[in-house]
Amino acid sequence: MTRRALVVAPHPDDEVLGAGGTIHRLVESGHQVTVAIATRGWEPLFDEAQVETVRAEAQAANALLGVDRLEFLDLPVTGLHLLPEHELNARFDELVLDVRPNLVLLPFPGDRHEDHRQVFDASLVALRPVGGREFVEEVLCYETVSETHWSAPNVESTFQPEVWVDITEHLDAKLGAMRCYSSQMRPAPEARSLEAIQALSVWRGSVMHMQAAECFTVVRRLLRTASTTQL
User: Fold this and answer.
1) How much is the mean pLDDT over the chain?
2) d(CA 124, CA 215)
3) How far is the C-alpha of 90 from the C-alpha of 125, rounded, in Å?
């Protein structure tokens, strides 16, 4: 039976920063992967040409990773708090019921950017195991360089890895997908640089004697049978 994975990204490139190697690994192992990019830039904060550039970059990056389906939810970037909460929750509810994923990857709720926190909250409402949503077996949160590591220690939730995914054979694909997001990249030593992204992958891998890894925290994991295979 083909397994389905849903990766929810608050902004274009978050999916690659946090889970690009894992996405490629899932695709290579036969999963059907859907990436949903939640927000879209709007004027005057972002001109339309810039929005279209990033959208094209997202399409190229996800095509490189082999993603089956790329969804743009087109919610207002930095404006999610202006939407009625029930409308925001309903949009993610529709997404979950449409994709019917077994595995869901979400942004970490302790991230600095408010969009990340609100996307996590709305997604988690949609992922409650009721009303025909029992197909969701695993919900994990990924870390996003430039957002996850700037929380206030001992004041806010901080990212503590619980799952290591070996992306040794998939790091090149992750870096290649990030190169597609040329408008979003920055020179080293900034966090949103290829050097920093690779360094984090290598460091995470070294903790578990791997060449490269991506890490996640666990929201929920359901083992239906002893033979259930995880990520």
Assistant:
1) 94
2) 19
3) 9
Whether the CB-CB separation of 105 and 217 falls below 8 Å is answered with: no
Mean pLDDT of the 208-222 span: 97
DSSP character at residue 168: T
Contacts within 8 Å (CB) and 24+ apart, 189-197? 190/146, 191/145, 191/146, 191/149, 192/17, 192/145, 192/146, 196/145, 197/17, 197/145
Asked if 99 contacts 31 with a C-beta cutoff of 8 angstroms, the reply is no
Q: Summarize pLDDT for 108-167 with one digit per residue, the tens.
A: 999 999 999 999 999 999 999 988 888 999 999 999 999 999 988 888 889 999 999 999
Q: How many CB atoms lie within 10 A of CB 27?
A: 18
What does residue 199 show for φ and ψ, rounded to 5 degrees?
Answer: -60, -40
Q: What is the pTM (predicted TM-score) of this model?
A: 0.95
Give 3-state DSSP helix, strand, coil % of the chain, rounded to 5.
40, 20, 40
The H-assigned helical ranges of the chain are 14-28, 48-65, 85-99, 114-126, 171-180, 194-207
Please give the C-alpha separations between residue 31 and each of 26, 68, 106, 143, 221, in angstroms, as whole numbers. 5, 9, 17, 21, 18
**pLDDT one-digit tens code per residue, 173-214:** 999 999 999 999 999 999 999 999 999 999 999 999 999 999
- The CATH class of 4-221 is alpha beta
